[in-house]
Design brief:
- The protein is mostly beta strands and 213 residues long.
Length: 213
């Protein structure tokens, strides 16, 4: 027969271990739905408002797809530690600690086909931030994707089979709370095409910058 006192001790020990996981990750909490989307904690958040002294940043885990034999990946970088974000993560930020940009990201292209690919792009950025247009601040507006397109030179990059190119230096700074997404630019093309379909499907990675409740 199992002693009931021992069962209570084991249960209490397991409960304490669960609590330790949160204590050892001060300032950072991981989790979410696991599909690149946060939980419903943002349902009552006001976006487009100035930051409080303390506010939060939620970043999605990396998202990937394959277009014409090229694996495209969008991934965020921790704005303070500069480490890659590997899973959904919430970061506590404060105005007391200055840093260049809240959003830092990379766009990765990996040729997983057996033929050389040519990456074609105009002067548009390879990615942009799509946001809710709920702020009058110019930093919180969606860029005009058609502006100056006809006056841009076309740039090409050769991507050999198995080769990976990491595009860094994508940084965005905000002064208001936002609900946004980093989007791979639809005008970046990979040729030759594997199918008769033109273009790639949308690839987007969400993020949230919001004030603490």
């Amino acid at each position: 027969m199992i002693n009931s006192n021992k069962i209570m001790i084991y249960s209490l020990f397991a409960f304490l271990l669960q609590g330790c996981d949160e204590d050892f990750n001060v300032g950072v909490s991981k989790g979410g739905s696991g599909n690149g989307k946060p939980s419903n904690e943002f349902e009552n958040v006001e976006f487009g408002a100035p930051f409080n002294q303390n506010y939060k940043l939620w970043l999605s885990q990396p998202v990937s797809d394959v277009c014409n034999g090229v694996k495209r990946t969008l991934r965020f970088i921790h704005p303070i530690s500069h480490e890659l974000i590997e899973e959904n993560q919430t970061i506590d930020l404060t105005k007391k600690i200055p840093f260049a940009s809240q959003i830092k990201a990379q766009v990765v292209w990996q040729n997983i086909s057996n033929q050389t690919k040519i990456v074609i792009r105009s002067c548009n950025d390879i990615a942009f931030v799509d946001e809710e247009r709920n702020s009058t601040d110019s930093k919180n507006l969606v860029p005009n994707l058609t502006l100056n397109d006809q006056r841009c030179d076309v740039t090409t990059v050769t991507l050999s089979p198995g080769q990976t190119i990491i595009n860094s230096g994508l940084e965005y700074t905000y002064v208001n709370t936002i609900a946004g997404a980093l989007v791979h630019h639809p005008r970046v093309e990979f040729t030759p095409q594997d199918t008769d379909l033109t273009g790639c499907k949308e690839l987007a990675s969400p993020f949230y910058i919001y004030n603490k409740p």
